[in-house]
From TrEMBL, chains A, B, C:
InterPro entries: Gly_transporter (IPR005115). This is Glycine transporter domain-containing protein. Belongs to the UPF0126 family. It comes from the Bacteria. The lineage of its organism: Bacteria, Pseudomonadati, Pseudomonadota, Gammaproteobacteria, Vibrionales. It comes from Vibrio caribbeanicus ATCC BAA-2122.
Amino acid sequence: MESTLLYFIDLFGTAVFAISGVLLAGRLKMDPFGVIVLASVTAIGGGTIRDMALGATPVFWVKDTLYISIILITCLLTIIVVRRPKRLAWWVLPVCDAIGLAVFVGIGVDKALQHQSSPMIAVIMGVITGCGGGIIRDVLAREIPMILRSEIYATACIVGGVIQTIALETDMNKDSALLAGILSTLIIRLGAIKWHLSLPTFALHR
Amino acid sequence: MESTLLYFIDLFGTAVFAISGVLLAGRLKMDPFGVIVLASVTAIGGGTIRDMALGATPVFWVKDTLYISIILITCLLTIIVVRRPKRLAWWVLPVCDAIGLAVFVGIGVDKALQHQSSPMIAVIMGVITGCGGGIIRDVLAREIPMILRSEIYATACIVGGVIQTIALETDMNKDSALLAGILSTLIIRLGAIKWHLSLPTFALHR
Amino acid sequence: MESTLLYFIDLFGTAVFAISGVLLAGRLKMDPFGVIVLASVTAIGGGTIRDMALGATPVFWVKDTLYISIILITCLLTIIVVRRPKRLAWWVLPVCDAIGLAVFVGIGVDKALQHQSSPMIAVIMGVITGCGGGIIRDVLAREIPMILRSEIYATACIVGGVIQTIALETDMNKDSALLAGILSTLIIRLGAIKWHLSLPTFALHR
């Protein structure tokens, strides 16, 4: 995969994740600053934890300010668009989110391996990159993070990350492995959205 | 501005932010350790995230233990004073908080620029330094962070940070720019307290 | 103390802390991924914050993947065992938790001192290592962290950490000091469990 394309999709994922933060902020009646904070933590929270844990500092959005610019523009546009009655089809946001998620995981795995992490740690860093932001968003909004509860969301990330690292171990070239991982995450996630798949929960009665 | 004076005001801000943590802990009936934790995260949480994101580690309070000492002494004194009936005027705490906030933002911007951040990132680091601690405090206390909702709080930080970075870009000397930024944040915040100013919120109905 | 033994007890503590995360996840009816996340943050959250604040990156579980493996195995075993009716005596988990806590604190103090922290910071890092994971676990589960409220939990960590650093200052050798600290934390915590000791809370009425 050409790295320019990957970078473009990464920015696309940043924008989509920011939108999900803006929408939650709107439901909680936050002021413009609250909107920006919730959009930002959703979009860059996962990658920030990953970079801090790897010691890859300054973190990515300090090095490349385009991420923050994208978030600010997204906030502005979302507020304007959402106030107008014209609606998006229900599946547009989840599908965009799935694309963003898949790319975030692939990039997280890739970055961890660049920092000499073991394959297992690379998968974990992929999951953190993909899911960390949404978890912080929900904590700030005082909700038990959705991701921890009932959907095949993180599971898609884990499978994608595992496939990417296995592909690398079997001497596939880096770009093909990345593509295989991203597509796996994306397909599983889209399937889960379409057929409302979820894992059985572990319920414990006191 | 003489750097000794700045350091003194920074410690003053640390104490004031710690007090706001102690008071919240008191309302939640926490034990002494909970009081110290809530005071500490409020006072040094923002700067800690800033330093971690910049890779300026060990973080500032590990390098200079006076911050922690100030927090511990503040906890002790606040508990003693608050238990006595003698009351402070209502405006004392908000005004002290505004002074602390303004200095924290200025220091955050300054530190980010020292670490070769771009102006936009410097403003963000200023806001994180000023607002991060209060957000963590509210998360631990299981409240939706006040800062995200309805007051000109973060906005004051953003304006102050922008003025400070613009002043530096226009070749103002570092101390004057810092002072201009701090005073801007302070004046806006004091105005917001006096006239109960707030930004319109972004409300989204499902 | 032989360092192999210490490492073994550290892994034991990791497993015990993971169990407490799994049990909370079960009460919240989380899916398998939620179980793993809650187990992981409980077991390695405190040490992760410590390493990030010290700048000891990549953090410990990135360098040594055995911690993550232990957590995954613990999740699996706990889910299987808990679903069976056979019950543990009430004191088994708290006592194991106390052992884990005591070792975590000792290791945290030790690691901070290795990174040239002052004694006060070392004690704080010990407390963060011991208590940080439980606090993050409770935040994710949307509870006000227990540790901040009503039990001699953090206090045991503080006393243990102080004894360890004082022992080192008085030229006791490193292993004896570590052992003295760990035993102090453990004894105080076991006493608090047995006699339901708690500190007076700081209650503030509006």
